[in-house]
Predict the 3D structure of the following.
Amino acid sequence: MKHVATFALLVLLCAPAKAQYGGMGGGVAARPMTLAESIGLEIMQMEQEADKAALKEALLAQARLGMKPVPGGKAEKELFAEETALLRDFITKKKEAMTARAAEMTDKQTAGRRAPAAARASQTTEADNKQDAVERYEKAKIEVQLLQAQVNLLQEPLGDAVNALATADIAASNDETQRDKADAARKTYDKIKEKVAELNKRLYQEQQVMLPMMQQMQQVQQMGMMGGGFR
């Protein structure tokens, strides 16, 4: 499976809530990262970008596969179903990996700004709540980006379907023997249009979920700028 085999590593477009979460409070000086920590974080960022590229390829393959008619033969149907399932599972796993890595990167980026263990004891609940907020935000952001990518990938096929339908309709209006071609073009257009409409609806819903989270994260960032570590 050519498309499915694109197993790069992706945790999307995550510029995950960076070290801005590290300064929530006052008074604890930031500890500079060690060389090993810095290299480890850079590798994770490279994995993020590689995963982003892999996910884009998988989404494009999924969009193309979705526009194909289901094969008639039994063997072809099984192969089609297998490829569809593999793509779906691959995309799901990548989304999960992206969310987990985003949270891990955030944790690594803020580690040097944390107070000593004794001073952190009373802040555990607050820190956990903030970490949960980061993870929820990253997950919502990834979902929005995935849906937007799918919508974008379908724009060219949709445009091609519109042009093909217009051409076929004109031909059928002058020659009734071309009516079957026009009907086929209409089915292709309707299928892509329905998919785009569905994705746009889901995208809008996810954006409404993400908006209050984004506002919350902005407030957290502003709080972090006013301090120098956890209280």
The helical segments are 35-66, 74-111, 117-120, 124-174, 179-225. The longest helix spans residues 124-174. Confidence is low (pLDDT under 50) at residues 1-29. Residues 19-225 form one domain.
